[in-house]
Structures are given as C-alpha cells and as structure tokens.
Amino acid sequence: MQPTTAQVAGGRKRLPAQNRYSALWHSLRFRGLLYQAIAICTVLSLVFFMAGNADHALTSRGIHTGFGFLSQEAGFSIGEALLPFESTDSFLWAFIVGLGNTLWVSLISLIAATALGTLLGIMRLSSNWLVTRVAVVYIEIFRNTPQLMQIVFWYTLMTLLPNARQAWQLSDWLYLSKRGLVLAWPADHHVFLGVLLTLLIALVVNAFWLRWADRRRQRTGKALPAFWIGLLIVLGAPALFWLISGAPRDFDFPRLTGFNFRGGVTWSPEFLALTLGLTLYFAAYIAEIVRSGIQSVRRGQIEAGRAVGLRPLELYRRIILPQALRVIVPPITAQYISLVKTSALGVAIGYPELFNVTNTMITVSGHTIECVLIMGVVYLALALSIAAAMNLYNKMIAIKGGALR
Fold first, then answer.
1. Rounded distance, CA 378 to CA 245, Å?
2. Phi/psi at 2 (nearest 5 deg)?
3. How far apart are CA 156 and CA 149, in angstroms?
4. Using CA atoms, how far apart are residues 282 and 289, in angstroms rounded to an integer?
5. What is residue 170's predicted lDDT score, i.e. its pLDDT?
6. In the predicted model, what is the mean pLDDT of residues 292-302?
7. Quick one: angle between helices 321-342 and 91-124, nearest 10?
8. Chain centroid to CA 213: how far?
9. Strand bridging mode 255-257 / 251-252
10. Comparing C-alpha atoms, which of 275, 297, 291, 273 is closest to residue 156?
C-alpha cells in the first residue's frame, strides 16, 4: 500500500505540500521576513507615489526640478562665514559655507559643554554642601527651561551691551560690545589653522598611543611613561609644525576706528548667543551622565585606590574615569548628535548656519524639495559620523573579559 500522508525518499519522510506550507507559515523567522518585506514594499510604494505626485504638481505649474541649480549664482550674501563667500558664488558653495558655520559652532559648543559638564558632574558628587548645591541648581535650571528660550535670552543680553565706542575692554586684546567679542588673532591665519589641525591629529594619535601602552602594560607588566610621552605628542607636534612654518609670532590686535573695530577677529552676538545656549544647555545633561557614570564604579575600587595612596586627581585619572567611561560614552553620544542637530535653532537669532542658509536658498531659487533633501542628508551624515566615531572610541576603551567581576 502506498503511503498517503508522507513519501519515503532515501529513508527520509517528506511532508506533503500542504503540510510543508503550513509549517513554513508557522515559522517565526519566515513570518518576520515576510512582514518586513511587505512593510518595505509599502513604504517604497508610498515614496514613489508621493514623489510622482509632487513632480506632476510642480510640472503642471511650470516649476522645473533637479539639482542643476546648485551650479548657478547664489545672488545673496552671508553675513558671517568661516569660509569666504561672495554673492557671485554658487548655491553649492553656499551650502558648504553654511555647513562650515554649523560645524564651527557645534565643535566649540561640544568641547565647552563636555568640559563644563564633566566639571559639574564631579561637583555634583562633592562632599562640600555649597559645591554640590551650586551644581544641582545649575543642572535643574538649564535642564528644565526650553533651549530656544535660553538662546534668545543670551542674544537679547548681547544686544543690551554698550556700543563699540563704550566697549568693555577686558584686556589690550579683548573687547566686548553689542557688536560681539573682538579679540586679537594670529596675523598668519594659515599657520594658525595648520597648528590647530596638527593638534587634532596629535590628539587622535595620542589616544591610540595610550591604548597601546595600556595593553602593553597589561601584557608584560612593564609600564611606560605614557602620560609624559602623550603630552609630548600633543604639544610637540603643533610646536614642530609652528617651527617648520617659520615660527610666526605676530598678532593682529583690534583697534577702534570710527564706530567699529578693525583688526583681530570678531565673534558676532549671534555666534556667541548660540554657542552659550548650546554649551550651557547640554552641559547640564552631560553633568548627569558623568555623575551616573562615576557612581557606577564600585566603591571597593575607589577604596582600593585610596588604600595604595593615590591622590584624588590620580584616583579619577587611573581608576574612576576609565571605568566610568564605559557607562558615559553611549548616552553622551546621543547628546553630541542632538547638539549638532539643535544648532539649527540659530535660525531664530539670525546666525547663518546650515538651516538658515538653506531657507535663504529656498527663497531665492524656489527649489524647496531639493534644498530640504540635501539638508536632511547632510544632517543624517553628520549624525551617523558622530555615532561611528563614538562607537569606535567606545570599543577602544571597553573593558575586556569582565575584568571587574
């Protein structure tokens, strides 16, 4: 008699087609892949439908789409720019200039917020009542008020400063007025930028050097003077570049001429207000992240460090911070990404960052969809780049093999 529910082939039973389809449908992996494929197809269909609908609507109104306008003359000026820009430059260069302003204000705010937040996080855990209360009041105020309100507040405060003729002279090379902060600047700008770039490269090299020296110490038991060699790398590389470039020492000092300052470099009220707003706001969040990271270190580790005679600074550098970083880095990465994206609030006070420049380009060119698409891709690329860099750093400082168990 022939089997009716299964077929025998090579000694193995083979389910009928109906049972095979039933088993396949009851597979969680298959249904998961099927649902994902349906979702992706649905999203792509909606995107193509909306894109086609938008293209038809624009074409019917005689509006041409495409990115060819990027090579056309911009026809507008940018009041403050890290990179040189003229109204005769292209729309593409305007995008790059706006991106440069965004990166500049974000970089300064990120460094300042990290330094201030780390200090506040340590103060928050101080045994001194006054120091702790100061940190708590700061954190509660800046975390619980809208960031846009803070930025507008600082900008309003800047506009209440005296005129250039009555500027506050903080020193012979530093003046503060409603026109902004004017300070002396190296006369040879190219050498100065080269020194800064060399310093950034040296910091990256130093991070890899410290990691290698620590692994060598764990492997061989022999410690190298890693701190002093790292300090030599960080300070020696920029100094060497400065010497090779001719060791320029001339500074361009600001001087009052008429109703404004000439010479030096001017940081506008818009730039200062946005930088203060980003720095002070995100420093409060970073302080809480640092506090939680420090508190995650086991008490026994701290007591052991004190028992061997480590001073407070050495205790933080050698025991507390290396272990706390594994808790600090992931949430602080999200704050860095949020800081870069929040720099778009500069549009509220007129700082020409990427979002503000894009708005002007939309008004002048009429290519709304293209400009918004480019801006979105740029912000996405910035966010992914920061996340990738911080993930790489997190892997470098990760504690291997459960060393603290």
1. 35
2. -75, 140
3. 10
4. 11
5. 76
6. 84
7. 140
8. 28
9. unpaired
10. 273
- Strands 251-252 and 185-186 come out as antiparallel
Count of CB atoms within 10 A of residue 338's CB? 16
Separation CA 375–CA 343 (nearest Å):
13
Give the separation between CA 388 and CA 219, rounded to whole angstroms. 28
Indicate the DSSP class of residue 90. Answer: B
- DSSP per residue, 313-328: HHHIIIIIHHHHHHHH
| Predicted local confidence at residue 402, as pLDDT | 47
**92: Cβ contacts below 8 Å, ≥ 6 apart:** 70, 71
54: nearest Cα among 355, 364, 370, 361 = 370
Q: pLDDT (tens digit, 9 = 90+) per residue, 14-41?
A: 555 556 666 666 777 877 888 889 999 9
* Phi, psi angles (nearest 5°) of residue 90: -80, 165
The predicted model scores a pTM of 0.79
**DSSP, residue by residue, 173-241:** TEEEETTEEEE-EES-HHHHHHHHHHHHHHHHHHHHHHHHHHHHHHHHS----HHHHHHHHHHHHHHHH
On whether the CB atoms of residues 183 and 173 are closer than 8 A, the answer is: yes
Residue 200 reports pLDDT greater than 90: no
Residue position matching structure tokens 């020492």: 249
Using the CB atoms, write b or e for 387-397: b if 16+ within 10 Å.
eeebeeebeeb
- E runs forming strands in 274-337: none
Pairing of strands 255-257, 260-262: antiparallel
* Burial state string for 342-371 with b = 16 or more CB within 10 A and e = fewer than 16: bbbbbbbbebbbbbbbbbbbbebbebbebb
Least confident of 59-73, 115-129, 174-188: 59-73
What is the pLDDT, as a whole number, of residue 5? 47
Q: Please, which pLDDT band fits residue 180 given cuts at 50, 70 and 90?
A: confident
Instruction: Retrieve residue 260's tokens.
Output: 């404004």
The fraction of the chain above a pLDDT of 70, given in percent, is 90
Report the DSSP beta bridge partners of residue 181.
176, 267
C-alpha span between 403 and 82 (Å, rounded)? 47
* Distance of alpha carbon 330 from the chain centroid: 13
Beta strand pairing call for 12-14 and 255-257: unpaired
